[in-house]
Amino acid sequence: MSTPTAPRYAYLGPAGTFTEAALRQVVAPQDAVYLPQPDVVSAIEAVRSGTADFAVVAIESTVEGGVTATLDSLAVGAPLVLLREVLVPVQFTLAAAPGVRLEDVRRIAAHPHAWVQCRRWLSAHLPDVVHVPATSNTAPAALIAARTAVDAPLGFDAALVPPAAVEPYRLTVLAPDIADNAHALTRFVVVGHPGDVPAPTGADKTTLVVHLPDNEAGALLSMLEQFAVRGVNLSRIESRPIGDALGRYSFSIDADGHIAEERVGEAIMGLHRRCPYVRFLGSYPKADGVPPVVHVGTSDSEFVHARVWLRSVREGAAT
Amino acid sequence: MSTPTAPRYAYLGPAGTFTEAALRQVVAPQDAVYLPQPDVVSAIEAVRSGTADFAVVAIESTVEGGVTATLDSLAVGAPLVLLREVLVPVQFTLAAAPGVRLEDVRRIAAHPHAWVQCRRWLSAHLPDVVHVPATSNTAPAALIAARTAVDAPLGFDAALVPPAAVEPYRLTVLAPDIADNAHALTRFVVVGHPGDVPAPTGADKTTLVVHLPDNEAGALLSMLEQFAVRGVNLSRIESRPIGDALGRYSFSIDADGHIAEERVGEAIMGLHRRCPYVRFLGSYPKADGVPPVVHVGTSDSEFVHARVWLRSVREGAAT
Amino acid sequence: MSTPTAPRYAYLGPAGTFTEAALRQVVAPQDAVYLPQPDVVSAIEAVRSGTADFAVVAIESTVEGGVTATLDSLAVGAPLVLLREVLVPVQFTLAAAPGVRLEDVRRIAAHPHAWVQCRRWLSAHLPDVVHVPATSNTAPAALIAARTAVDAPLGFDAALVPPAAVEPYRLTVLAPDIADNAHALTRFVVVGHPGDVPAPTGADKTTLVVHLPDNEAGALLSMLEQFAVRGVNLSRIESRPIGDALGRYSFSIDADGHIAEERVGEAIMGLHRRCPYVRFLGSYPKADGVPPVVHVGTSDSEFVHARVWLRSVREGAAT
Amino acid sequence: MSTPTAPRYAYLGPAGTFTEAALRQVVAPQDAVYLPQPDVVSAIEAVRSGTADFAVVAIESTVEGGVTATLDSLAVGAPLVLLREVLVPVQFTLAAAPGVRLEDVRRIAAHPHAWVQCRRWLSAHLPDVVHVPATSNTAPAALIAARTAVDAPLGFDAALVPPAAVEPYRLTVLAPDIADNAHALTRFVVVGHPGDVPAPTGADKTTLVVHLPDNEAGALLSMLEQFAVRGVNLSRIESRPIGDALGRYSFSIDADGHIAEERVGEAIMGLHRRCPYVRFLGSYPKADGVPPVVHVGTSDSEFVHARVWLRSVREGAAT
Fold first, then answer.
1. CA C309 to each of CA A273, B161, C231, C297, C313: distance values in angstroms, whole numbers, following the listed order
2. Which CATH number fits domain B199-319: 3.90.1140.10, 3.40.109.10, 3.30.70.260, 3.20.20.140?
3. Where does the ACT domain lie (chains A, B, C, D) (predicted)?
């Protein structure tokens, strides 16, 4: 049981979601208050409103790419930062209420992302089924569990659910592990209020939102050069529309390294000077723990030596 | 009425959708067979399977960015090309069955994109409503129109619909024009089979899918330089996961200019040589008709002169 | 007369040279000790050895380019810096001892640079004359003035001399102003010991010597990007062999701006980190007084704001 | 003996020069007419005027860098091309007329380049000697050999000469091999009329003269990118003043590869389109025979495949 002072985590619930699996990696249920939310935006807003201390939300998947609701919610509004990332394997099970047989399935409830991730399997095995969209991966499971009679109408015959949802909702498995990509991963982040940035671990990433100064040829190139000239690698870059006109983009970026590191700090200052909008969304340990390649001339000590050298030269020292 | 030989257009139907509005810009109903489809992927697949000759699908909006289902469907699978683009203003009306009052609305059916585009208005005026996801902007309207009794349960009280859907479905307007962004546009494209590329008009764009050679620092920079060094501007660039691992991206790109133009052709050959995957998705007239800026040294005639000059120099001419 | 404490200036003498004209722009003869030297290297070494406080030497001309003896002497050896630059128009007069006629001229004494700068005139008017190389522009004039008899053998019949040398050496003008380029200029610099860098004036230049990290494709490009990404323009870049192998170059660079300026300082730190050798040869006022173009995001105040902003973000401030 | 139809080679003579050593590598005396010239410019002009078929001239040394007279003579005027390069080790001997002792030497005749290359040895061993400039490395040797009496005045006591000049001029060696850099090389080129470009050997270089479109920041960067984006390495780049104003440069460039190669041809076409002046000075075998690194996507076959692919795509082929 969590105590009244336990941290409160908002997440895309209910029990059985991938997000809950991510949350369990972050903090055990007995050490926190789990606050399930109907959608990602609500989870993030729960932190902004003070209802929750933290949110755990999906930010990217190997299959679907950036989670636009997360990216867009973090890019504007009251400032929040990312404090940690966790990776969760993504797999789906076709499940139903007890008694349903695979050959009876005509309508499958599924979150649109789940539907996409099982598309090839469904085309091959159930080419004629209809997609009934669900607001989450577990909503259909909850509907099955909550039905008042065995023959109560559900609006669907089966559902694509996370494997972890089978047992709590007492579902029958019709086909396990049917995701088209057996190695799919979703990356989740812990969102909190700005404050102390987690200390560098040597294998960190930094997330930023950047608007380009104009939409001329070369603006994106110039932005990328701010990183390249300081030897900072980008592990993720996604464009999102700013929303005021076609052709105007905001970029969501993950850079290798920590804002406390010299090369990252100088690159971000370069963005700050040249771009109309830069939002720092946090520096935090990489889930894979792999330290970045530090190119010649871009280590912290080389930056410090260069600064000391420049100061001496400015004061008249010989070179 | 369309004749048996009229071209068949698949699109996200039914009547009243924004896609239908786009399709009407392309071809009048009497000159074509309109084939409504339940989703974008189905519309595209209808062309691949031969059920339709063309598809009209949304590819990008000022609010939501790239339509990932469209981008992903075109990026892989049997080759298709874009033949034309059309722009449609995006606006939403909150509508319901006759007799419903605004103060009675608790559940609003809306396609997720519509929901997002009215988020601020909804927060301000109906902060407690619940989102009931719909598979299209007109599906709830069709459900209202099709209900067998005035009090038949719909699962929602009102819907966000395109203004054009109010009349055909005999809806009552509760609040007109409530999209947060009054200037929102969606860009639609006409998809067809590869074949004759539309002739250059002087104001064209070219759509490409490109995979980077590796995920090292600088691979994206190098790709952009292939365009920059030939003076080709990019009006859209979006990253999509390749799907096999985090950090591996496919880029969907709109370049100013036509593949028949020298600078575009040379840039695309550069991509072809350096990138593991390049798919040409078509060169077609820009909807806004604005010709691109042609920088010094990048016009077709300058390319031709340079080629003639090079040939003469290779053959021993003096310079 | 100069007092014992007057500053001592070494320069390529004797009286009448272009360098003396440059020196007169720097300091009047009554305020300094003029120390004529036989060549540029000797003038520079006079400062190193303590014989002189300063040297005035040519560094670049519109016709001949960089003065390699100056560039090479400054690039290695005990550190010296440039404190000021002055521009001197370059013009030549064909002159001789009294009594000599143009049609008698067979051999012309001239410093090789002078010879080059009058090449077209000489080809047109005296195609058969022979070049007798001189160590300075005034050495032949001095020989004429110093001859003990009117018919004493000189080894040459006439000389290319600066216009200012005609009178002091009592020469006869055979053809005035015969330089091929009427707008030729030579840039001279005042060389001194490292110490207080002249304060920024708003229109300064900074001279550097830089070795590239390797001779791979792109090393020069990377070096130039260190400047470009900070908006620093280069007004001069010259390659000089390092001397150990063909294909290994040292670059002599003039950058717009003062080392005390943020953008210049950051660019130089970038060079210091990436290049095996960087020598600062001074920041000093531009002779033309034209302030550099400061691009958006590269002013000192923008650098300072970015640094303050970064510090606050590193300490947890919201963005 | 050479026959009347033997090719005529102009070179910086007389016998014993380094240039003669280079010429002997190119063609044996019995197979050609050797036409010694007083200077590099005369040798080049001899080809232009038809007096010679070819010229052999120094273009670059490890110590002195580019030979500006050669670079400038080739950059303008009637077009000539480079057909071959040869490398000659550079070494100097301090020699004199028989009977002269080292301790008697006060004045040393030397070509300015020779003087520079022995500077450190001279400073250490003969700090007080005076430099008497010579027009070539062998001119003083010829004067010694030609003197009519043992005590005829020469104007100098000893000379810096190529080792090969000792014997023909019957000199006495005072100090052998005194060049400061024991590994010094000079690169010579064979200059001829434009015509058939030597066929590619797989290890070639291409020499170009290029003017930048303007002197803005980034013009040099843009020029270098024309090479970089096609994977062409530069082994030499030297700036020369255009001569009309300070800050305006012509660049003399050696690029790895042959103009017949695709990547080189495309890069040169890029220069032709963007730069106000491009002169092709030849493609010829590298003296060291080392083939260039060909980066992924820049081989001839990849260029050809890309061109074939582009043509098919322009004609409507699927990708």
1. 10, 44, 20, 14, 6
2. 3.30.70.260
3. 208-285
